[in-house]
Design brief:
This protein is an alpha/beta fold. The protein is about 40% helix and about 15% strand. The protein has a 7-stranded parallel beta sheet with strand order 3-2-1-4-5-6-11, with helices on both faces. A two-stranded parallel ribbon has the order 7-10. It is globular and about 55 Å long. The N and C termini lie far apart (about 40 Å).
């Protein structure tokens, strides 16, 4: 099984780098497709664990370029497609780039998978495609609501993936992770925003709304989910939620991080971080029964205690000055 050749697009990012490490440790032949840059840098993979460094094949490219994608896909058995633009605030500024990367980029991967007869593709969706929960826990039958250009682009990408299964029998499954957190996550996400500001020592943390709830998942659980989806024969043509079946508000997250770090946190409302009223997703809470029944996945960091464990690991990583130095806590980056 471990002789399989696996391509990870977006391998230089937060989840992608953790997934690449997991696959290498499990003995797979891994190609890491990273966003092209003239510095020859591979994102978070440049600082991956020593036992993983040099044990994968890095490829610089751009999912928007079909030739670059074809070159990376040729000869692999499994494609785990994570490459995407994901920042919601920036999607208000540059929506065209989200369509180009998320929809057209996914189309390029699907075409290459179809051309080369790849045996399995996993396409990455997002819980943002559901918009604010109309019922909880959210099942895969929940309506799709594009409340931001980002979520609309991911709905389009998801539907493109499903259409290739229906039209051409392309063996693609759609994995829909709910909010993921952990070491290396961008400060555009709320948990690293809170932790990085708290550890900076100012005592004040700038945030937007505290009321929205999220179904948070530790990155190790989600990386394992990708691996299991890639190796499974089940779920082709299906959308599958990966979530903890547990919701917590942003305000509660602040309290938990305060307890774990041992620091008092004063929240300061920053209007720049507040989403437009009709664009804010107020509630997310996943039903994960389908992931369990189809691929046997369950979160190891589920529930309140699991969440605390994941937060503790995340805080430990951010507490290393070398890691914290990657984050500009004094500025809000969209």
């Amino acid at each position: 099984m471990n002789s399989k050749k696996i391509l990870v697009t977006g391998a230089d990012g937060f989840i992608g780098s953790h997934l690449t490490e997991l696959l290498v440790r499990r003995g797979f032949d891994v190609t890491a497709f990273c966003y092209y840059n003239s510095f020859g840098q591979f994102g978070w993979l440049d600082s991956c664990s020593e036992d993983v460094m040099g044990q994968f094949r890095p490829v610089l490219g751009d999912v928007r370029d079909p030739l670059a994608v074809r070159g990376a896909v040729k000869g692999v058995d499994i494609v785990l497609h994570l490459a995407a633009l994901i920042g919601i605030p920036y999607s208000y500024v540059a929506p065209y780039s989200y369509v180009d990367t998320n929809v057209t980029g996914t189309l390029n991967v699907l075409e290459a998978v179809r051309e080369y007869g790849v045996s399995r593709m996993v396409h990455t969706s997002t819980s943002e495609t559901y918009g604010s929960a109309q019922f909880v826990p959210i099942t895969e039958e929940h309506p799709l609501v594009g409340q931001s250009p980002y979520s609309a682009s991911k709905i389009g990408a998801d539907q493109m993936a499903i259409s290739y299964y229906r039209s051409f029998e392309t063996p693609v499954a759609v994995m829909r992770p709910f909010n993921t957190y952990g070491p290396r996550q961008s400060a555009r996400a709320v948990i690293p925003t809170i932790i990085s500001q708290a550890l900076h020592g100012e005592g004040k943390v700038k945030l937007g709304s505290l009321e929205p709830t999220r179904d948070f998942n530790f990155v190790e659980d989600i990386a394992r989910g990708f691996m299991m989806m890639g190796l499974s024969d089940a779920g082709a043509g299906e959308v599958i939620n990966f979530g903890s079946n547990f919701e917590v508000s942003v305000g509660q997250v602040v309290k938990i991080i305060s307890e774990v770090t041992g620091r008092d946190i004063e929240v300061v409302l920053d209007n720049a971080r507040v989403r437009p009223r009709d664009s804010e997703v107020d509630r997310l809470w996943a039903c994960n029964k389908k992931a369990k029944s189809l691929v046997g996945w369950e979160p190891r960091y589920g529930g309140l205690e699991g969440f605390r464990m994941g937060i503790k690991k995340t805080v430990e990583w951010f507490s290393d000055p070398a890691n914290l130095a990657h984050y500009k806590t004094s500025a809000y980056s969209i």
